[in-house]
């Protein structure tokens, strides 16, 4: 009688592989979304920017068209308001809603252009000072120190005094005032990366100076530069409004939030909405950008991300 040989034991199934770590982009989005204040600020600012971008189609009237029979008309929700002008009119009978929309288009455009105009040369000067510490760094950094001796708004006023008021000159003045901050930050970030192993390996592999600057070191310096650019964007909006309030920035009849505040300051008691609405719009916009900057800082910094 034949016996069946015992079967070898079946090997256990291999344990499941651990889940792969999320990509850097997914980790950044998750960390930013965890900050509810920054996420809400991003949504509000996106609505403001979209309304400013679509101002020619959303505005019910031209921002410079005057309705003399409706001067200083209250908003529609007040007793003496008119449903024709939802947010009322200013001292010349111009629709406030239309001017706020077009003013946001001007203010945000000036701020964005000034940030780009200062960020690009500031990064290039900072990298040059970091890679050439003997002959380039002393001249560049001493020039930045001289520029930092004046506050940003005061330096912008000096530049406007030389160039003259106007939209383009406002962009140039604000960009010059913000240039030292980007230069010093880019230099400090680059100096922190130059001593790392991956930079030494790139040098040994034969990478040239330009490749080390823009392909090796710069991508690892972007996090603080992005955060600084975000916060400088809100500062540029305030400086644009400040120059417009002083009569040195965008000139009338162009709609701009600072110019609107300057024109309405004589009507604070008689028509408070003329001052309140542009001021609130400016306040909410700058607050949203600052909250977004804080959220970006927390999401881009791995140490803060681990603590949260």
From TrEMBL:
Stretches for region Disordered: 1-21
InterPro entries the record matches: BP-dependent_transpt_permease, MetI-like, MetI-like_sf, OppC_N
Keywords, in A-Z order: Cell membrane, Membrane, Transmembrane, Transmembrane helix, Transport
Stretches that traverse the bilayer: 38-59, 106-132, 153-179, 222-250, 271-292
Start and end residues of each ABC transmembrane type-1 domain: 104-293
Signal peptide: none
Source organism, top-level taxon: Bacteria
Record localization: Cell membrane
Membrane topology: Multi-pass membrane protein
Family of the protein in this entry: Belongs to the binding-protein-dependent transport system permease family.
Protein name: ABC transporter permease subunit
Originating organism: Roseateles aquae
